[in-house]
Prior knowledge:
Blueprint: H1 5-14, E1 27-28, H2 31-40, E2 47-52, H3 58-66, E3 70-73, H4 80-86, E4 93-95, E5 112-118, H5 124-134, E6 138-146, H6 147-153, H7 164-172, E7 173-181, E8 186-187, E9 194-201, H8 207-221, H9 227-230, H10 239-245, H11 259-272
Parallel strand pairs: 2-3, 2-5, 3-4, 5-6
Antiparallel strand pairs: 1-8, 6-9, 7-9
Amino acid sequence: MSQTRSEIADLLARHGIVPRRRLGQHFLADPNIIQKIVVLAGEPEGARALEIGVGTGTLTRALIEAGFPVTGYEVDRRFAPLLREALWNVEVDIRFEDATGLDYSEFSGEHRWVLVANLPYGVGTPILLDLLRRAAGLRRFVVMVQREVAERLTAGPGSRTYGFPSVVIGLYGTARLAFRVSPHVFVPPPNVDSAVVVIERTAAPSELRDLAVRVAAAGFGQRRKMLRSSLRSVIPDGLADRLMKAGISPRLRAESVSPEGFLDIARVLGRAA
């Protein structure tokens, strides 16, 4: 059963924990939203769940009750005794480690994994993009993020919110915004709206896609400039010719190039290597 707002407040108080905003500690206290997230995770048969930012364990318990074996990461060791209480009668692998140091080989593909997480604000996007690029076993991602981050993750070329994260998502999968979430369902409430995004992996990590990521990073690093200038750090010689061979105008800016376009540039570079 999911924890209510009063139960979360009581758990935190009894264990002397004051949430830290710098760690993005806002705990979901709405059973209906918890259930919607678990449904989006899909069928548990043959799958394992990775949770980042376990917090008070309410999503963790819901995933376990749905049939998922759960491996959870929580950077704040203050939550160890609280989680022993909240999850005392379930089997779960909780690791009090920084998820930015994940061993990706554990999620390399031997098992089918799904990431289901209320990602910590601030570090959530880099972790998500790294998992897409490095952890082939993660086939689905169901993540709660800030609404503006959700819009960037799901944006298409030419839109105001399209950027480097949008390209990485498009190179490795497809993303959709599942639903928006009010700040009032969190303890404590954040200052921004949130949203749940679902990403389905469509491509495994590869050197070609990694090269496309590096090209996109250079382009968006100087997004006001045309590609003929912004990509000189990764294509020092014959830049305009190589872009034309990829079917990309050197006069375009990064925000106008699709993920497939960056992949086409990487293919031309790979053949020339």
